[in-house]
Design goal:
The protein is built from six helices and four strands, in the order H-E-E-E-E-H-H-H-H-H. By secondary structure, the chain is mainly alpha-helical.
Length: 157
């Protein structure tokens, strides 16, 4: 979620940049000049931010088929964040405009939803984004877009 809100802040500071015009990179400019890569993470294309002889290849998955099952990193919370990050990217670009106008409020409402618990997984969060999309935009197609974004990353509601 921090990548989602960080990306929206960056887009806002770029004049409420349209989602389709954003770079969706997290930590661009942080890698040393001799490192082969563009950022720490890519929300648009998880697993493509770097491929360097010293750092290795960005191993962040963008689909549940590639989910990393590990006890490290609190169950892989950072490595697997590419999956929900990509779902947000897909939803925001499909909705169009500045991500903070529709997709952002949906994710924020889901994050604040009392049904979200500290041990919730991707499926519960995905369901809450779909419910909150319906609650916030009952007359629009946002609910369908959110469901489709999660399906594209392999999270079935």
């Amino acid at each position: 979620l921090s990548d989602v809100f960080g990306s929206m802040v960056k887009q806002y500071s770029n004049g409420k940049q349209a989602a389709e015009d954003a770079d969706w990179l997290i930590g661009e400019g942080l890698l040393a000049e001799d490192v082969q890569g563009v950022a720490l993470r890519s929300m648009k294309e998880p697993g493509t931010a770097f491929d360097d002889p010293v750092l290795g290849k960005d191993s962040q998955p963008g689909h549940m088929d590639d989910f990393v099952d590990t006890n490290d990193d609190n169950g892989g919370v950072h490595i697997n964040s590419g999956i929900p990050n990509r779902a947000f990217y897909l939803a925001a670009t499909a909705m169009g405009g500045f991500a903070g106008e529709k997709a952002g409020p949906i994710w924020y409402a889901a994050m604040r939803d009392p049904r979200l618990k500290p041990n919730s997984g991707f499926r519960r969060f995905a369901r809450l984004t779909a419910v909150n999309a319906w609650n916030l935009f009952p007359d629009g197609e946002e609910h369908r877009i959110v469901q489709d974004a999660w399906r594209q990353v392999g999270v079935m509601l």
